[in-house]
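We modelled the chain as a single entity of 125 amino acids. Its sequence is:
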Amino acid sequence: MNELHFAFKARQHLNRGLHELPPSTQSRLQAARERALARQKLAVHQSILVAAGSFVQEHTEGLHLRQILVALALVLGVMFYAYWQADRSIAELEVIDSALLADDLPIAAFTDRGFDAWLKSSASH
């Protein structure tokens, strides 16, 4: 017998017994139910930041300090690599720009199809 079937049978049995109760007991049960519902905690509206904080707290309670440090090191490593790649790309562009500014090339050289390949080969030397 699964849980849903058991719950259905228990509800049927309780409902049958409800009709056999004296009216005074039924009224006391109804009053107790109303008091319980009045005491029930109401849902409190939270801001997004509070909800995000509780989400993070619930999901990090089981983590150990070592796991958090490894994740932090991984994030810092990815950030350092992205910064390093951007810096390297800027340095390459700087070399190309300074070579272009220092050289006396005609305007037609800039529109030449092989000019880009020449720039890349000269920047690598």
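As a brief sanity check on the tokenised model: Residues 65-125 form one domain. The mean pLDDT is 79.
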